[in-house]
Amino acid sequence: MLTKQFILKKIGQVILHVAFWCGVLLFYTYFFGVDSSDFSYVLSFSLFLMPITVATTYVFIYKIIPEYLVTKRYALFGLYSLYALIISTYLILLSVFYGLVYLSNFKYANMAPISKSLLLVAIAVYLVVVIVSAFKLLKLNLKHTEDTKILETKILETQLKLKEQELNYLKMQIHPHFLFNTLNTMYGFALKKADETPEMILKLSNLLDYLLYQVDKPFVSLNDEIHHINDYIELEKMRFNNTLHIDFKTENILTETNIAPMLLLPFVENSFKHGSLKNGILTVNINLYCENKSLFFTIENTSNANTASENGIGLDNIKKRLDLLYKNQYTLNINNENGLFKVHLKLNMVN
């Protein structure tokens, strides 16, 4: 069923077309009336040309241009344009004879001066056809550009949604992985009824708050990430007791510096999970500083040569998150040699 809006749109288009062709008729009467005082002749001649002009124009703008020129079928466009020109030229020739035979009673001198010339009559007709066709091409081009922009916008929106879903999926993997390691540590302390258990629960509650409520934000303060890294380190210190030597240094940390949440913590977690004791000690060294609008993060821990820490879930996820959030804005180097597992991360333009 046709909607009221659609009907009104069609009526508006009809009115616009009628007004345009009335304007063309006025142009014809003015053009062919030059040096002629016979208004009746000029009007009749112009009215005879109108169906030829309308038909030729509509054939071009509704058939030949959309179906052959726009679709780049140039051979057919040229062929059908030639057909249209031949037929319209024949009809224009008839209009000249109409003016001579019916309007002037075979008296060449009684014809309006411009209507005597087949060339000038054809120019008048094809001028209208060319102008309308050019307007149609411009309209089609604008519509194509608009459709292209809409399509590009939809593609970008789809890509963004896919990236958001992938990021959420990666975060979902990090959450249980991190929680499993921490709760496993706490379980051991609870079995031993250690005095440090309440403090561990407090540290874990802070981490859970960060994990559950802050991690969904696009960015968090770098100071928040550092604070929760310290909480995690304190938890690990309780677990390792005297078998851990850790050094965490931070320098030139600006308050306005923001990063993606849980970006650095998985590196720290990985160093504890896959690190190996050497001479009864697990050594972890962490350095974090900002310089020239870049963040530098290095972490190294003692490990065995065959330790597969670079294949852990945490590191694998963090690499994917870096590609999604900091594409072409970071460098990450990971190596495991000479008994040390090292990570070097640089983030550009973190402020």
Strand arrangement across the biggest beta sheet: 2-4-5-7-6
Helix coverage percent of residues?
55-70%
Question: Roughly what fraction of the amino acids lie in strands?
Answer: 5-15%
Instruction: Tell me the number of strands.
Output: 7
What number is the mean pLDDT?
83
The secondary-structure class comes to alpha+beta
State the CATH architecture of the largest domain: 2-Layer Sandwich
Q: Identify the CATH homologous superfamily of the largest domain.
A: Histidine kinase-like ATPase, C-terminal domain
Rg, rounded, reads: 40 Å
Elements, N to C (H/E) = HHHHHEHEEHEEHEE
**What is the fold named in CATH at topology level of the largest domain?**
Heat Shock Protein 90
Largest sheet: 5 strands, mixed
CATH C-level label of the largest domain: Alpha Beta
End-to-end span in angstroms? 57 Å
Keywords: Kinase, Membrane, Transferase, Transmembrane, Transmembrane helix
InterPro entries: Bact_2-comp_sensor_kinase, HATPase_C_sf, Sig_transdc_His_kin_internal
Protein name: Histidine kinase
GO cellular component, one term: membrane
Describe this structure in words.
This protein has 351 residues and is of the alpha+beta class. It has two domains: 16-154, no CATH class; 194-348, 2-Layer Sandwich (Heat Shock Protein 90), CATH 3.30.565.10. Helix content is 64%, strand content 14%. It is built from eight helices and seven strands. The protein has helices spanning 4-32, 39-69, 74-103, 118-192, 197-214, 222-240, 265-274, 313-325; strands at 220-221, 244-251, 258-259, 282-291, 294-302, 330-337, 340-348. Strands 2-4-5-7-6 form a five-stranded mixed sheet, covered by helices on one side. A two-stranded antiparallel sheet has the order 1-3. A hairpin with a 2-residue loop joins strand 6 and strand 7 (340-348). The model has no long low-confidence stretch (mean pLDDT 83). Residues 166-243 form the Signal transduction histidine kinase internal region domain. It comes from Algibacter amylolyticus. Keywords: Kinase, Membrane, Transferase, Transmembrane, Transmembrane helix. The chain crosses the membrane at residues 12-33, 39-62, 74-98, 118-138. One of its GO terms (cellular component) is membrane.
